[in-house]
Design goal:
The complex is a heterodimer.
Chain A (H helix, E strand, L loop, with lengths): L2 E5 L4 H6 L5 E10 L5 H10 L12 E4 L16 H4 L2 H6 L2 E6 L5 H9 L3 E4 L4 H6 L1 E8 L8 E16 L2 E2 L6
Parallel strand pairs in A: 1-2, 2-3, 3-4, 4-5
Antiparallel strand pairs in A: 2-7, 5-7, 6-7, 7-8
Chain B lengths: L3 H17 L3 H13 L3 H20 L9 E9 L8 H15 L11 H6 L17 E5 L4 E8 L2 H5 L1 E6 L4 H18 L5 E8 L2 H14 L7 H11 L14 E8 L7 E9 L5 E7 L2
Parallel strand pairs in B: 1-2, 5-6
Antiparallel strand pairs in B: 1-3, 3-8, 4-7, 5-7
The chains are: A alpha/beta, B alpha/beta.
Chain lengths: 173, 286
């Protein structure tokens, strides 16, 4: 299978070309966040305080994980606080949301409206952590391992699960 | 009997091994699944999980960042005198293993009420994580065998323990187990799953038997009941990582205990993730 290489930050044209089941490798900086911090980022979007906190979302990706001494690995993206953040983050410029599990129809629609996509990756922590070259806390350090991190990755593997209003999980609903 | 220092060291090493190494039957089950899989995407996921296991073992790094809650299963020889301080040494070994791994720092701070709401946050050190209460069985011999398992959080969302009205039919109970497995697998992100069931007379006993199934199950030695459940849930076709395919379930482990004269059987299910059971064992010679 052909693998599409994606360099971060990513532009709208690249996202438009991607279809479900496309396999990708991601290179460059991506954000990480989950239940605790993503609603806080959404609040920053609403209050217009992202840039003053050093959060630049245009063309970015958010990987749903903590960053702990035990490495990185996707948590379920259909948890209320995570999935609930996807529409606002997409509208603010996040192009790729990376996690695991199926998402609701409303979220699929919100992704389509903003030309954003959802990708899944196996919870292979040892492998995924080996793709991580750098890490730094961007905001909300009080959340510890669940703070908003930026991690620099090389050859980070994922599969497109939702794109252009199509979800690979549709047939299972 | 082994001295305290050795109990601590062996327990710590066993915890690290359980968290970082796939067992041979697990590797073989994944290889067979990847071979028979027709979907290239599902095949990619299964091979990715195998590659992860290779890296984890080589670098002694956790298979999954949810390093899990330590669960200990002990088989104590009938001729063995358990030494004073044995259980304390096991606890110390678990703490040492969590520091060595390192385990994800996820122990919750506070009193009863505060721990429920998690309002005081988390401990920063991995070894603050308490192990679950130990399960024990007696066996012939002079030794103590420790099986240490790490229970991740995702399966706890999908697992359950509940009575099933059997209507004097094995099929009734198995069909209910298949329904539970199918319903849970649909929602679990980390497919293929591993289904572990205990069937007993009380909620406590069923959960205990389910843990024994996890401790003793072998992917390459499957009973008729285990095969039947695996095949039936695989019919759903959710596939690895939910991408569709033949392998929704990698294997099923069932432990049936004594039953009571009653219209119900109590069934406990753990809908394990793709790394389950994260398990290793060691022997303390008597």
């Amino acid at each position: 299978m052909a693998v599409i290489k994606i360099q971060m930050p990513v532009d709208d044209e690249t996202i438009k070309k991607l279809r479900v089941y496309d396999m990708v490798e991601i290179y460059g900086p991506i954000f990480t966040g989950r239940d605790a911090v993503l609603p806080k980022v959404v609040k920053c979007i609403e209050e217009g305080t992202c840039e003053e906190k050093g959060i630049f979302l245009k063309g970015s990706a958010v990987f749903h994980t903590a960053v702990s001494p035990a490495g990185i690995g996707p948590t379920s993206s259909n948890k209320l606080d995570i999935e609930g953040s996807i529409p606002a983050l997409s509208a603010a410029g996040v192009k790729m949301h990376i996690g695991k599990g199926s998402l609701k129809k409303e979220t699929v629609e919100a992704l389509k409206e903003n030309n954003s996509i959802f990708l899944v990756t196996p919870p292979s922590t040892a492998l995924l952590t080996s793709t991580m070259k750098k890490k730094r806390v961007v905001a909300f350090p009080e959340e510890g391992m669940e703070a908003l991190y930026e991690v620099e990755v090389e050859k980070f593997p994922a599969i497109v699960a939702i794109a252009g209003g199509v979800s690979i999980y549709d047939k299972q609903d | 009997m082994t001295d305290r220092k050795e109990i601590i060291e062996k327990t710590a090493q066993t915890l690290v091994k359980a968290s970082t190494v796939f067992r041979p039957d697990q590797i073989e089950a994944y290889k067979r699944a990847a071979e028979r899989e027709e979907s290239p995407h599902a095949k990619w996921v299964l091979n990715n999980i195998l590659e992860n296991a290779e890296i984890a073992e080589k670098t002694s790094f956790p298979l999954c960042d949810d390093t899990g809650i330590p669960h200990l299963f002990l088989e104590v020889g009938d001729e063995c005198a358990v030494p004073a301080g044995f259980y304390g040494a096991l606890e110390e070994g678990v703490a040492r293993g969590l520091r060595m791994l390192p385990g994800r720092p996820m122990a919750v701070k506070g009193n009863d009420e505060e721990r429920i709401s998690q309002c005081r946050g988390l401990y920063e050190n991995s070894d603050a994580l308490a192990m679950a209460p130990v399960q024990t069985r007696h066996v012939p011999g002079k030794d103590i065998r420790l099986t240490l398992m790490m229970y991740g959080g995702g399966p706890e969302i999908r697992g359950k323990t509940l009575r099933v009205f059997h209507k004097h039919s094995l099929d009734t109970v198995i069909n209910e187990m298949i329904a539970w497995g199918t319903e849970g697998a649909k929602l679990l992100g980390c497919l293929p799953c591993v289904l572990a069931f205990g069937i007993g007379r009380s909620n406590y006993e069923a959960a205990s038997l389910g843990m024994e199934a996890m401790a003793k199950g072998n992917f390459l030695v499957q009973s008729d009941i285990e095969k039947r459940i695996t095949d039936a849930v695989n019919e759903a076709g959710f596939g690895a990582l939910g991408l569709g395919g033949k392998t929704t379930v990698l294997g099923t482990f069932v432990k049936v205990g004594p039953q009571r004269a009653s219209g119900i059987r109590v069934v406990s299910m753990r809908l394990g993730c793709c790394f389950d059971p994260r398990r290793a064992e060691c022997l303390f010679e008597g």
